[in-house]
Amino acid sequence: MRLTRVVTALTVAALPLALAACSSGSSSDAGGGASVKSDKAKDPNAGLLTGTQLKKALAPASAFPSGFTIESDGASDSGGEFLAVSSRKTAKPDCTKLEGTAWIQVTGYEGGVSFAQDDYVNKDKTEELAQEIDQFQGTTAKTVMKQLRTVAAECATFTDTDAHAKVKVTGRSTTGLGDEAYTLTLTSGAWESGTTLIAARSGNSVVTVLSTAGSDDGAASAKKLTGQVLQSLKAK
Q1: Contacts of 214 (CB under 8 A, 6+ apart)
Q2: How many angstroms separate the CA atoms of 114 and 233, rounded?
C-alpha cells in the first residue's frame, strides 16, 4: 500500500515584518528605547529547509540496488513554501499506515512544515525502498520520535489491508544514525519477506525509510539508505 503525502494546504513562508518608524529620526515610541527584535527570531521556520531543498537531500537513483527504478507516483515534496502546522491526532494510531511509504503518519502527525519523499521498486515490483524527510518547528521532531517509540506496543499486531493477514510489529532503539533512531520490523506468515522501517532524527529533521529489499526483511538496505540521507542532510 503506497501512501504518498499530498500537499493539501500551502501557506506562504513567514514574510519579514516591515520595520515601520514614526519618522526617519524618531528615537523611540512612548515608553522610549524599545528595541525591535530581529525578523529571523519571529519566524518559526527560520533555519528550516523547504521541500525543494529537502528533495535534493534524498538519496539519488545511483544509491539504490541495480534494477531498481523510481515510482513516478511515489515522489512528492512541499515545494518552496512551508506548510501550515497541523496538530497531532491523539486517537489510537492507525496501524495500517505502517504499510505505506508515508508511515510517519502513524504518530498522529501528518508530517512536518516541509517534506520530500520518493520510492524505488525492482523490476517485478516485489521489493521496495522508500525515503522521506520531514522538518519540524521547535522541539516537535523529538516529540515525533517519542511517539514512534510507542508504536511497537500500540501496534504489536494488526491486520494488513492487502492479504488481510496478521502482522507482528517489533521495535528497538538503533545506534549510529543521527541524534536518535528507532527501528520497526513488520513480519507476517502470509508474506514472503518482512518490512523494516527506520526513523532517524537529525536536529529538526526526521528521516523515515521503508525497505522490503533483501533476505533480511529489508534491515541492511534500510539502514544503509537512512545513513545516506542523513549524510546528505548534513551537507545542506
Answers
A1: 127, 193, 220, 221
A2: 14
Give the confidence band of 9 by pLDDT, cuts at 50, 70, 90. Answer: very low
- The residue type found at 110 is E
**Residue with grid cell 518608524, as numbered in its chain:** 21
Phi/psi for 132 (5° steps) reads -150, 145
Tens digit of each residue's pLDDT (9 = 90 or more) over 45-55? 999 999 999 99
Print burial letters for 24-41: b (CB count within 10 Å at least 16), e (below 16): eeeeeeeeeeeeeeeeee
The model's pTM:
0.85
CA distance readout (Å), 2 to 101, 130, 178 = 6, 10, 26
- Please write the tens of the pLDDT for every residue from 18-39: 333 333 444 444 444 444 455 5
Given phi > 0 = left and psi -120 to 50 = alpha, else beta, which region is 214? left
**222: part of which helix (H) or strand (E)?**
helix 219-234
Residue 25, C-beta contacts closer than 8 angstroms, at least 6 positions apart: none
Can you tell me the distance from the alpha carbon of 122 to that of 85, in angstroms, rounded to the nearest whole number?
A: 35
C-alpha cell recorded at residue 106: 502513524
